[in-house]
Each structure stands twice: as structure tokens, then as C-alpha cells.
Amino acid sequence: MKRKGQRASYQLAGFYWELDLRTPRHGDRPFEIAHIDHTELDVECIASSGHLLGRPWISLLSDAFSRRTLAFYLTFDPPSYRSCMMIVRECVRRFGRLPQILVVDGGREFGSTYFETLLARYECTKKTRPPAKARFGSICERLFGVANTQFIHNLRGNTQITRNVRQVTKAVDPKGLATWPLAELHGRLSEYLYEVHDTLTHPALGQSPREAFQMGLACGGKRVHRMVAYSDEFLMLTLPTTAKGTAKVMASRGVKINHIYYWCEAFRQIEGEIVSVRYDPFDAGTAYAFVRKQWLRCHSECYGTLKGRSEREVMLATTELHRQYHNHSSRFAVTARRLAEFLQSVEAEESLLTQRLRDRENRSIRLAVATRTGNSDTVVEQAVPARPIKPIGPAVDEGTVSEVYGEF
């Protein structure tokens, strides 16, 4: 410690050879303590069309008691609150409940208001690991290493050789050997984490994670009062909002969210009022407003262009617009029309093509999270019966016939 500091001495710290009353435990039952962490997979991925898209990021939610993988999410975007939102959705979809304590690192995505509000709503305690002490997150860190060793490093296009850059030649360059699209990789990784690794004997447990999970449920109880329904309310709580959380309804324009105006017919009766708003980070053409004790779907101006655009793509386009007009005008303001024109231009095709391809590959994974039912091998999942999710918005009388115009 005197020569190299605390981080170097941490590698030589004492080890717990036996358990006593003062030894820290990884929980006494399933869903008591869980860990969330992110890492970049050691494999290059391509789009369905063959374009190279780079290495994806994986987010893991692991149960500390049984070492079982509760949920994971695969995406090309760096870790953000969107990754946290999707992995929480996946956990509730599969098991119908959330852990009582979530252990996270010091990443900015875990300190977002949306994430902490969601955990507070469902009475989950967030605990942050000390910096530069990896043993506090050994559950997730070890799972990352096992997944790489047993599965990822056996795939074509893995990036093990890039650790020795001088040995990389064109014949063995992972970017030239990339074969896996994101959707196919997600399917195989799901099979490995939920079926293969789940049934292998864990050296620290002496049994498989699935057996330890089921034994813990039998001893600790089902705890039905902790169940969370995968309903409209839960999905709405996982959506982000603005810095204020509210917006003012402008006459004939609607509410303004992230430089874009959104409108629905119910705004005609509440012009000038302030309403709560939320938006979909994966669809810039849609937002939601809380009007008359219900969440209503709102459509953006230039809906035909902004529909299906992710928040990250719009953010990149906004940054590019500011860069282009920085030398021309100091009072330049980003509007929905300028964003739509730029997204359709040739310059946007060049700078945002990779992001569009990545969002297109992620879309199938998000749809699978929203539609698939959970596995039937666990006791917890049988406690909350799956029910169809109703569309958010005002109820429509089935007896009335109205003419439909396109997406509206």
C-alpha cells in the first residue's frame, strides 16, 4: 500500500476461508440481492445486409443467492438509462417481480432520475459498489468471464486476438470474419444463459443455479406481495420524461418535448394547462401525456419522418445540425421540421447510417421483450398469469365504425 497505493494492495487483500456471523453474504433467498452491470462483448457483429456494426454491449441482471441470470439485454448503444429500463422490463416479464436490493456500480446511467424513481415506486433499494473494488461485483464480473470463455470466444469473429495488436493480420482480423447478426446472437446467447449455464453445476454452490433458485424459493417462500404486474402502468413508469417532468399545452401546437411538438385531440380542451409527459426513447414520433386521469398517445409533427427514429439518432442529428450552423448563426434553434429535413438529407444518410442499422437490428429484440411470455420452469412466474397489454389511450367503442388514415 505504501509503494503502489490502495488499488494495488486491494489485489492482495484477505480472503474469507470460512463463514461466520460477520462474513458478508450474498443474500439469504432469491430476489433479495441482485447485481446489474454492463460490458462490451468480445465479438464483432454485422447487420442483416452485411454491414459491419461493431461490438455490442450486454447488460446482465444476476441473482446473488443462486447465481442465476434473471435477465439480460443486448444492444449496440453504450450503457444508458435505456439499457436499465429494458433489463428491468425483461426481469418483470420473465418472473413477475423485482429484486429487493439492487447492487450497481458508479455509472451515470444508474444515477438517473428515471431509474431511481422506478425503483422507489416498487420499493427496491439501490446500493452502489465502492469504486475500484471489483470483488463487490464479483457475481456479474465472474458471469461475464464465464460467458466469454464458454460461448463468445468460440464464435467466428471474436476479438481475442486484438489483445496482441501486432499479431493481427488481414486473414485473422475479426472485422473481416464477422458473421453474427445481433438478432441471431441474442437468440443463441439467450439459450446459453437461460438453458445451458442455468443447468450446469456451479463450483461455489455445488449445484446448478436453477436448483439453488428453486430450493431458495421453497425455503424462503413465494412472497406474492412482491409481485409486479407487467401492465400498462409498469411500462409507462419505465419511460423517461423531461427535466421538469411536465410540459405546457400550447394552442394548436401541443406539448414540446426535446425540441419537438406532440399533439392529440384531447389538448383542445386543456389549452394552457400543464400536464405530465413521457416519451418513447426508441420512437421519436410518439409521446404520452397524462390528461384527465389517463395516459394518452400523442403524435409528433413531421410524424412520417420521425416515426421509428430512436432518441440516440435524433440526438446525433441535433449535434450535427448545431455543428453545421455554428459558424453561420449564433441564434440557431433546432425544430422538428429542420430535424426531419436533415434526417432525409444525404448528409444524414452518411453520418447516421450506422446508427439506423443498429436501431433496426435492436428492434426485433425489443419486440421480443414486449411480446414473449416467460419460461414455465419457475414457481415465481406461475404466480402472475400473463395477460395481454391493452393499448395506451382512450377506449374505442367497438360498435362504431370509423375511417382509418394510415398510421393515425
Total individual domains? 2
- The average pLDDT is 82
User: What is the overall silhouette?
Assistant: globular
Provide the CATH superfamily of the largest domain: Ribonuclease H-like superfamily/Ribonuclease H
CATH architecture of the largest domain: 2-Layer Sandwich
CATH domain topology of the largest domain: Nucleotidyltransferase, domain 5
The helix-strand sequence is HEEEEEHEHEHHEHHHEEEEEEHHHHH
Terminus-to-terminus distance: 65 Å
Unreliable sequence segments: 374-402
Strand adjacency order, main sheet: 9-12-13-14-11-10
The helicity comes to 25-40%
Task: Please explain how this structure is put together.
By secondary structure, this protein is an alpha+beta fold. The protein folds into 2 domains: 26-237, Ribonuclease H-like superfamily/Ribonuclease H (Nucleotidyltransferase, domain 5, 2-Layer Sandwich); 246-370, no CATH class. Helix content is 33%, strand content 16%. The chain has 13 helices and 14 strands. The strands form 3 sheets. The protein has a 6-stranded antiparallel β-sheet, with no helix packed on it. β6, α3 (113-121) and β7 (125-128) form a beta-alpha-beta unit. α10 runs antiparallel to α12. The N and C termini lie far apart (65 Å). Mean pLDDT is 82; it is low at 374-402.
